[in-house]
Amino acid sequence: MIVVTRLNDSHFAINPDLIERITTNPDTTLIMVDGAKYIVTESMCEVIDRISRYRATVIALTHELSSGGHQQRALELVENDTEPTPDTEHPVPLRPRKL
Question: Is the distance from CB of 33 to CB of 16 less than 8 angstroms?
Answer without folding.
Answer: no
